[in-house]
Amino acid sequence: MGSEVIAMSSEAPFSELLRQQRRAAGYSQEDLAERAGLSVSAIGSLEQGLRRAPHRDTVRFLADALGVSESVRRQLEEAAARARGRQPRGDSGLPTSLTSFIERHELDELKALLSDHRLLTITGSPGIGKTRIAIELARRIEDMYDETWFVDLLPVRDGKFVTSQVALRLNVPAESDDDLSGIVRRIQSRHTLLVIDNCEHVVADVASVVEKLLRSCSLLTVLTTSREALALSAELAYRLPSMDATVASHLFLARVQQRDPTWSLDMERLAVVADICKNLDGIPLAIELAASRVSTLGLEALRGRLKGGVTLAGSRDLPARQQTMNTTIAWSYDLLSDVEALLFRRLSVMIGAFTLEAAEQVGSGESLPVQAVADALSNVVEKSLINVDHIGTSTRYRFLESIRTFALDRLRYEGDLENTMLRLMEWLDQKAAVFDSSPPEVIIENWSDLDNVRAAVSWALSNSSYATMRLQQTLSLGSRALGIGTFARPTLAH
Ligand SMILES: Nc1ncnc2c1ncn2[C@@H]1O[C@H](COP(=O)(O)OP(=O)(O)O)[C@@H](O)[C@H]1O
Ligand SMILES: [Mg+2]
Predict the structure, then answer these.
(1) Cα four-point dihedral sign 152, 156, 160, 163
(2) Which ligand is closest to the CA of 152, given by its number?
(3) Ligand 1 closest atom vs CA 102
(4) Is a pLDDT exceeding 50 seen at residue 493?
(5) What does 286-336 look like in DSSP terms, one character per residue?
(6) pLDDT tens readout for residues 446-490
């Protein structure tokens, strides 16, 4: 075989690529058919473009038989995927993060495992990096699938809505009464990677949905994150460990430099950083919280304070890592200014991602004027207690769940929960007016607000008759907006 022939235009059809590579390898159609275990007529119709969208396995057999390089293999796969009408890039809903990803060797392990298993669950304690590594893994292998989808179950408070949440995220038309069949029809004939984040609170329902999907869709691969495994026989549960010392220090350094690009590590600082990361049990979330304080506290003081903080608070019966996490969040919270802390607590009613506008409406009030919210919010973001996501072109803020739970506890403790919920509903009511004459697609674009609507609705139904009365308008938004999403009608019918 001569030197490798790459190329043609990157959009060349599969038929042309195949003919070119076969000739370059010096094979006749018969030779290739025999080596690939395919019929001669199959090769013929592929080269003539009569069969335009070969199955993934066919592509693999052909590439193996031709002995092509990785890049040519990719070209062939791409061409076949294009012909199969693959999902356009950016449609998967995979969140993009503003912060850098720090390489960990677990990623390669997970990648290998996912190629052998149709269901892989990443388990581990809060803040250990499950979501981040799942997203990164999905992004890196996205090319191997016709479609990749990301479904976050955090907003789903009741397990019976798991299926409808998945259907919603996969753009399964709402007309069908049976969401599961809708999903199956949608993905059955396509190589699909389905990422389901945050399964722990509805684990049994996820297990049942995933089991049915895997059974009906032979081309489906599922990647989930959960504090506990789904306990299905097809499942491989992978417990994500803490970051090892080197990776943890990298993360710490990256997060300090994000705020101060001139900051560097010498041997002395390195030792302190290593000590801090060890104190924080190598938990990425705790490391991020601590690193965000270096510029104001300095490294030595940070170490001193963390030692105090981590040994002082926390209840002894919690698993050690969770305790480290909680005490680090408390430590970070205690360092907020009064106004920042107030906003931080109030925003904890937001289960879904939220906009600045939402933060202004829900977070403002007594002791915090609307005009002060943007500044306070960016300070809290700066301290890593709230995250920023860019989904498509919009910017949204979001709590990590362990931090949100902490903030919500404090909000309740301060007696400010009911008031804040009412503000959330007021804001949702305003939104209802805005949406009054909007077509369903416009409403549905506001995914995250729908999550917040649902949170408010379920809180009000179970907590306060006054809130439920006040809810009438929110309910009308809810039934309109959530109705088209298929998942909320049963909740709203109470
Ligand atoms: N490998 C990594 N590189 C960079 N940041 C990370 C990494 N792993 C975790 N993080 C960060 O640590 C925090 C907690 O991670 P996350 O994936 O949300 O944890 P979990 O899902 O286990 O609760 C997030 O802010 C995340 O961006
Ligand atoms: Mg997570």
Answers:
(1) negative
(2) 2
(3) 3
(4) no
(5) HHHHHHTTHHHH-HHHHHHHHHHHHHHSS-TTS-HHHHHHHHHHHHHHHTS
(6) 545 777 777 777 777 776 666 666 666 666 656 555 553 333 333
Residue 6: CB atoms within 10 A of its CB come to 13
Identify the top-confidence range among 200-204, 327-331, 473-477: 200-204
Indicate left, alpha or beta for 238 from its phi (over 0: left) and psi (-120 to 50: alpha): beta
**Distance from Cα 281 to the centre of ligand 2, integer Å:** 17
Residue 460's nearest CA partner among 489, 420, 411, 432 is 420
Residues near 409 by Cβ (< 8 Å), separated by ≥ 6? none
List, in order of start, the domains of the chain with CATH numbers: 14-83 (1.10.260.40), 96-239 (3.40.50.300), 247-334 (no CATH), 338-492 (1.10.10)
End-to-end CA distance of the chain: 71
- CA distances to 243, 255, 272, 274, 299 from 267, rounded to whole Å, are 20, 18, 9, 10, 13
Does the beta carbon of 127 lie inside 6 Å of ligand 1? yes
Closest atom of ligand 1 to 401 CA is 23
The encoded tokens of residue 414 equal 């301060």
For the chain, give the number of residues: 494
Mind listing the pLDDT tens digit for each residue in 84-114? 776 666 677 788 888 899 999 999 999 999 9
